Amino acid sequence: MNGPVLGIGSQLPWATSGSMVGVIGSVVIGCPVAGGGGLWQGGGVSDRAVVSPNLTVAGRVPSVLRVCVELVGWVTAPWALSRCSVWLVPVALVVLIVVPGVFATPGDKKDVPVAVPGVATIAMMVSQLVAAGYGAWALLPVWAVWGVSVLVVVTIVAELPRWRWLLGAGRGRV
Predict the structure, then answer these.
(1) What pLDDT, on a 0 to 100 scale, did the predictor assign at position 129?
(2) Mean pLDDT over residues 10-39, rounded?
(3) pTM for the whole structure
(4) How far apart are CA 70 and CA 74, in angstroms?
(5) CA–CA dist 136, 144 (Å, integer)
(6) CA dist list (Å): 24 to 30, 46, 51, 58
(7) How many other CB atoms are found less than 10 A from the CB of residue 148?
(8) Contact assessment for residue 56 and residue 116, using Cβ atoms and an 8 Å cutoff
(9) Lowest mean pLDDT among 3-7, 53-57, 81-85
(10) Is the pLDDT at 172 greater than 80, yes or no?
(11) SS3 per-residue string spanning 111-169
C-alpha cells in the first residue's frame, strides 16, 4: 500500500514503532511500515479511535464550550461559596482547577500527569457544570442565569461523544 498517510508513528504516543498512523475525524487510519505491525493488525484498520474526540477537529466546539463553562464556574462558585465560609473558596478552587489539571484519562489530553479512568474525567466535568450552574444561580442576574443555564445544557449535548469515548476508555476498549 503506497501513498501518503497522515502523521508519523514515532511522534504519536499511541502508535507502535512499526506503523504510520493518523486521525481523520474520529477514525484512525494507518499503514504498516517495513517490519512493523502497528495498528493494522490482521489487515484491517482499527474501528475505534485511539484518541478522544477532544483531540480532533470535531472536538473544537465542545472544547470552547467547556472552557466557557469552566470560566463561569471558576469565578462564580468560589464567590458564591464565600458567603457560607471563606474556607470553602480554596477548596473550590482546588477541586475546579487543580484536580482537572493533574488528573486525566490517557488519550483525552496530550499530557497526562496522573492517569485516571474515563468515569473520573466525566465526574470532574460534571463538577464544573454544577459549579457554573450553582454560581450563576447564586450570584448573577436572571438574564445571565438563563444564559449560563443554556450554555451548560449545550455543553452537555456537545460533550456526549467525548463522554461516550471516555466510558469506553475506562473499560479498556481503546
Answers:
(1) 97
(2) 42
(3) 0.68
(4) 6
(5) 7
(6) 11, 12, 11, 10
(7) 20
(8) no
(9) 3-7
(10) no
(11) CCCEECCHHHHHHHHHHHHHHHHHHHHHHCCHHHHHHHHHHHHHHHHHHHHHHHHHHHH
